[in-house]
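Good day; I would like, with your permission, to put a structural problem before you. A protein sequence and the structure tokens that stand for its backbone fold form the material at issue. The record follows directly beneath this note:
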Amino acid sequence: MTLRLPYSDMRKFSCLLPWLTLLILSDRLRSAEPPEWSFRNHVLPVLSKAGCNTGGCHGALAGKGGFRLSLNAYDPAADWYHVTRETKGRRIDLSQPAASLLLTKPTAATRHKGGKRLDPRSEDYRILAEWIAAGAPGPSAQDPTLSQLEVLPARSSVTKGATLQLQVKAHYSDGSVEDVTKWAKFASADETVAKVDPANGQVEIIGHGEGAVTAWFSSRIVLARVISPFPADIPAEVFAKEKRSHFVDDLVLSQLEQLHLRPSPPASDGDWIRRVFLDTIGVLPTPSETIAFQQDTRPDKDERLIDQLLAREEFVDYWTYRWADLFLINGRLLRPDAVKSYYQWLRDRIRDNAPWDELVHEVLTAKGGSIEEGATNFYAVHQDPETMAENVSQAFLSLSINCAKCHNHPLEKWTNDQYYAFANLFARVRAKGWGGDVRNGDGIRTLYVEPNGDLIQPGKGKPQPPAPLDAEPIPAEDTGDRREVLAQWLTSPENPYFTRSIANRVWAAFFGAGIVNPVDDLRVSNPASNEPLLQALGGYLVDQDYDLKALMRLILTSQTYRRSSEALPENQKETKYFSRYYPRRIMAEVLHDAIATVTQVPGQFDKIALQDGSTEKTDYYPTGTRALQLYDSAVSSYFLKTFGRNERAITCECERSSQPSMIQVLHLANGDALNDKLSQKMGQVTDLIKTHPAPPDLVRQAYLMCLSRPPTEDEMAGFVDLLAAAPPTEKRAAVEDLFWALMTSREFLFQH
């Protein structure tokens, strides 16, 4: 039974707290020498665990009730000042620790809007009381610093329904080790596999797969992995007999065996050729290409086709367009000539198969005119040091450091100091010429670097020494281009994020899902679904000198990529371990071009949509231009907008949508995107009626054009009967219906 005192009696109860505190302290003195509690390493963790410095409490930007703490204790010195010096020191009472507001408020001995957060009988209360009694010493340079955070067990294999207790240990610079489990905060990275009590680290296994639990303590995060095999009994010989091309298959199959997931069988030649064409060059195979591949009996025909695709001009168009999403080539941010220059620079580098590290180094250190040096437009899209820093981190490291602009990152290790040290690398980047109005001007802008100048950190009123993340700062007296130091650090094989970021992006482009998802979020608290695989891909890319074509070829030649999208009873519930190929709707631009190719009626791109809602005529795109050849995401197109084109407003994969919607269904069923093209007299329907008048030939050709396979017997019979029954005046309408049925099917609209 719990005794609850009315508020009027709480004040009476508060008079007992000094005696309770005195008893605690005297008991400590009798039993042993009390420890020296550190404000940084003990007091702040207690306040953090109690939730005092969260964004909804005193950690808010303006604080709460006149009391402000830094969010999640990112600024110990400021926190000590607020606790001990503000309000004339009323928050602590050195002579009567228990009378301190720091103790009476969270214990609810005095009115507290946040309610009771601390038990007077707890060890946390004792730590605060003894720290106050010792004179409330502040943080100092002599404090042991947290050098390592460890969670145990780091990896566990358990079954559904089991429980697991995690332990967190803090290793300090003086060699001491403390069990900090009670002050750590826990969260599950995948609650379909495991739930965790955020207060004590008790894990409950509620599903199947590979889950992870994060433990947070003093702005550090560590990860414990939990494996819960699926309830299927799959003989070991199933995996032993699986065909393997190289280490990609070894690592994927190893995880599938551990998780008891049966791999799906290989895809048919028809499914695979369509898949590899769309994923590699963004176009459908022609009927003749499909037939030639299916009739090819050579054992290395897959590899031969892959090499041909990687060498085609459409490869350059497709991957230039995809990487343009990352570089934000956007006419809402740049004038037309600058857009074209920026795009042409990127296309030339893709055509030359420039190593990824070289390409990124080039854009980071770009200088000169916006028309002559297209890469400089990266700094026209991002025009202040903070935005430059945030987008470089997001685009090339897959790290979002934005939260650290105001406070230490709540989900990562990045501090406010590190944010401003990183942003200060761009403080001397300057430009003259066009000022940024996308509706007017020539867009000509010259980028240069000043020999001095710094970015002031608002919270401290002075600059941070410029430094890459987790790297040594640049000497203050150095007048060179700081971006050179940044580029060397960022593109180094030793950088733990750069290689993983691009390897994960390339993998996701072919599978529709990354090894880390979202693909541009490499937080420690967002772990990879197959960490050994991601590490191996990164190592391979380094060995290949960042040749992205080599990485693509490795992925394409794997048996993992060759698998069918057919779900088996033993793998139908998994969505991230690559036991099969995951179907997904074709991206907007590829779908647009597929419809234009099949109907032989190209789209029209003659307007640019500006930010204010107005449009501007453009003659950059002649009739016949494919959507994947557009320089600019601002080109007006209702189809591309409806089907989720990346608008390139911010550096985020979330800008592109591949989710089906009712609007898309209605647009295909009743709109002009498909119906008008099928009815064009100069289009595919007219030609096919002339060249393939026999219904069986016509149906077969239509299937090869749309689905890259011949029709089944039932499909052939149904459509032949439809065409045969149509009177001569209705034959064209019947053929249009045939194409409409194929091109609105899931098999056409989805990559599979």
Q: What stands out?
A: The radius of gyration is 31 Å. Confidence is low (pLDDT under 50) at residues 1-32. The CA atoms of residues 499 and 539 lie 8 Å apart. The chain has 31 helices and 19 strands.
